[in-house]
Amino acid sequence: MAVKALVDSPIQKYLEALHGRVADLREGDLASYIPELTSADPEWFGIAVATVDGHVYQVGDSRQAFTIQSISKPFVYGLALADLGVERVLAKVGVEPSGEAFNSISLEPGTGRPLNPMINAGAIATTCMIAGDSPEQREQRILEMFARYTGHPMVVDERVYASEARTGHRNRALAHLMRNFDVIETDPEPGLDLYFRQCSVLVNCRDLALMGACLANNGVNPVTGVRALPEAQVARVLSVMSSCGMYDYSGGWIYSVGMPAKSGVGGGIVAVLPGQVGIAVFSPLLDARGNSCRGIRVCEEISRDFDLHLFHTSRSTSAAIIRARYDAMLVGSQRRRRLAERDLLAQHGARVRVYELQGELTIGATESLVHEVLDELAGVEVLILDLARVVNVDQAAARMLADLARDLTGQGRTVLIPGAANKYAFMRLVAQAWPQSQDLAIFQFSDSDHALEWAEDRLIATLAPPTDPTQESALADNDLCVTLSGEERAGLAAIAQRLEFAAGTPVFRTGEAANALFLIAQGRFEVLLPAPGQPPRRLSTLSPGMYFGELPLASGQPRSADVVARDGGACWRVPFAAIEAGLKIRLLSAIASQLAERLAEQARVQRLVG
Length: 610
Hints:
Blueprint: H1 10-22, E1 46-51, E2 56-60, E3 66-67, H2 72-84, H3 86-92, H4 120-127, H5 135-150, H6 158-167, H7 169-180, H8 188-199, E4 202-203, H9 205-216, H10 231-244, H11 250-256, E5 261-263, E6 268-273, E7 277-282, H12 293-306, E8 322-327, H13 339-348, E9 352-361, H14 363-375, E10 382-393, H15 395-410, E11 414-416, H16 424-433, H17 448-463, H18 486-495, E12 497-501, E13 506-508, E14 516-522, E15 525-531, E16 534-542, E17 547-548, H19 552-555, E18 562-565, E19 569-575, H20 581-609
Helix pairs in contact: 2-3, 2-10, 4-7, 4-8, 5-8, 6-8, 13-17, 14-15, 15-16
């Protein structure tokens, strides 16, 4: 079957559609209090998402450079905490929300301490705390800190810096006022100048998404593996972003979007979902509070569409959701197959791929899964995603799995999702995201074993003339007779009795006395292990030319499983007592040889799937 090797990620497709919807929003104005910022193109608009697994998705003007402005504040605050420790920083800058604009004069009465490090006064005080023997050395340390977050060297936009320094009279007044209270203990001008320069560092939307992903990943850059911030300080930085990062809109933001975030008058917003992703938006048209209008809309829609609000549900990381992965070439279903069919599966079974999932599927976990599926998709015709061990699938994960299944189905592939029968919310979300799924049988199997059997049957049917289980297989052609002579086969036929079974009829039950073996002539038979209070577990499915009930021929033990006719069928019953001694030895030898092959295969499967 000719199909594409890869499909686009559901996250990428979602971002492209979201960008198209929000691009028509043209509310807001360019920042004017820094004259150089008015040169920005109001049409610039980029979105980027970076996961804790190091995958970055971007759309629009995501590589357009702009100045970081106030988004620098939480990251420089983290550097100050690392340099001086929590107590010394808290002595100079508080962590209480001001509820006022970014440039407000929010100082504690009597002490002059800024209320938090996200307003200008607190950020200036924080910058003055950065360790270094000279202004140049402190600036270099800040640039190196940003480089750890983004993965590349950082530079200052000198034109924006000059414009900001030339017009920053209010910030200059704040700095000198804090010097009066000894919040800033030395000449405030060098620290103020460094603050103007840190705000003028050039970034792009992709940089900001990675910076957010570093915070989501406990301070480690998920692409480079470099630690950008000590783990002990990550929660403190995210805390002040949650309560103060959006200035006088911080309460509304955490209420409606529900993620720690920081905005800047350059048009950027970065949001963080701890343990999952960093989200960044760039669009220079600002609302009256100095926040990007498109940026707020994008984050609201992403949070709503993927249910990312911190206080909606518990979260898990993306690690260890894939319990096992294999294809039908390495691991077969419990359906026992004859030699010719086994040979076909050994050659072509990679066309059927199974992922056994476990734990909680969230946006980060599912994004990681989708990425791996797409990387390993070449040549796959049937994809089986087993949810039997999954305890929860959130809204974001359901949407992404629905998008993946829809895209693969559109390519001519088949997607099966067994183990979802009791996950009603998940199936409802899939139906909402992909209404056509209701016309398909993606949820038809209760477990991956039956889904794998169906996929094997379909694959074998495309490679060889299908075996009709209603057609009778001669006793002499049975697998057990392969090594017997013609005379021995005739002797076996002479003592065999042909029995008919209706669908669902038991051949024998667990615990019954064992006194015969059975050679299948027609139909399919299931070997089932009963379990009190639960449906029986299928051990294997057998078809014409196979046999069952043979083990007690050597052991003399009672039946250890049920055997039931799956369809209407027929068997030859061979009484143990009637088998001549020499023939019994030949049969036991053939049984032992084939049993050894099956045990070796089961051991290999156990090593693969655990």
